[in-house]
Design goal:
The protein has 10 helices and 13 strands. The protein has 316 residues and is α/β, with parallel strands linked by helices.
Length: 316
């Protein structure tokens, strides 16, 4: 006998598919094991359920799908160069695997929250809204658009979140500002792209937005990005300014075009987006990159006070 599904409003659990990544870990840390079930493919995480979208169906790893109201779909190959180098493999997970996941979710009346990308745009204009036409030039962006179109053409109740470049605050997290700080510990010459523009967003804002979207049961397409667009060089200079408020630093910055870097595919130049629709739907107050950058630098200097090594000592 088939167990009847409870109305989604009566379900309390969230499924995080691909929770071993940067955003997934932060989201699970916020929700906790009492409210969320995380999955991973190759990198085990605490309380995680192993799931490979290319070889396994969700029904093979979930005993109680009727308990979930939403599923946050973060799984896949999210590195543009990797997608370009391994097109068949990345398509298998980013498109075929994700579409199979969505089919299962729909059969259980679980709302899919699909993470797309700023790279659905060709970067010719920037300041994109949800009404602007997509025109991806990257393999990765084309894969994301294919899933977007599937959702938009076949479902009424879904969420698509086009995620901008996301950064964190913790040393070693491999994100924008913290990675630069670590680089400044070792190097006096920094090469930085001066023509690549995006709207970076703090990972804690990403998590807050997801939680609000779930709580308010939003639907549709949203740009999940910071409040302003910046070039990569502007962001690095922002960091240097914050550092120099604490200690002198002598660094040579060499600006270059993003096209001068050894990338497999030519990058779109301006993929900045506008978050107005997201803000209106959720009421979220997005943090400015400059404010978070200053907080990251202040934390780095506080943590290194009295240490014989580390970033602040290097610049004195």
């Amino acid at each position: 006998m088939i167990k009847p599904l409870a109305p989604r409003g009566d379900r309390k659990h969230i499924l995080i598919l691909g929770a071993s990544g940067f955003v997934g870990r932060a989201l699970f840390a916020r929700l906790g094991a009492q409210r969320a079930t995380p999955t991973y493919c190759r990198t085990p995480i605490e309380h995680g359920v192993q799931f490979d979208a290319c070889t396994t169906r969700i029904s093979d790893v979930l005993d109680n799908p009727e308990a979930y109201s939403h599923a946050v779909i973060l799984l896949g190959d999210t590195k543009p160069d990797s997608c370009a180098a391994n097109q068949a493999t990345s398509y298998a997970v980013n498109v075929e695997g994700v579409l199979a996941v969505i089919e299962d979710l729909v059969s259980w009346q679980i709302k899919p929250i699909f993470f797309s990308s700023e790279f659905v745009f060709d970067g010719t204009t920037g300041s994109y809204t949800e009404d602007d036409a997509v025109n991806p030039i990257l393999t990765y962006g084309k894969q994301k658009v294919e899933v977007e179109h599937y959702l938009q053409e076949r479902l009424d109740d879904y969420v698509i979140l086009r995620l901008a470049k996301t950064y964190g605050r913790q040393r070693g997290d491999g994100s924008l500002f913290t990675q630069w700080l670590e680089q400044l510990e070792r190097e006096r010459t920094i090469v930085c792209a001066n023509d690549q523009i995006f709207s970076p967003i703090a990972v804690d804002d990403v998590v807050e937005a997801i939680v609000r979207i779930i709580e308010r049961d939003c639907r549709g397409l949203f740009h999940l990005c910071g409040p302003q667009g910046h070039s990569r060089l502007q962001l690095f200079e922002m960091l240097l300014q914050a550092v120099r408020e604490h200690a002198p630093i002598d660094v040579q910055v060499i600006p270059k075009s993003i096209h001068d870097f050894p990338l497999r595919e030519r990058r779109p130049l301006d993929v900045s987006m506008r978050p107005d629709k997201l803000v209106a739907a959720t009421g979220i107050r997005l943090q400015a990159a400059q404010d978070v950058c200053h907080e990251i630098v202040e934390q780095a200097f506080r943590q290194a006070t009295g240490s014989s090594a580390g970033f602040p000592q290097h610049v004195r």
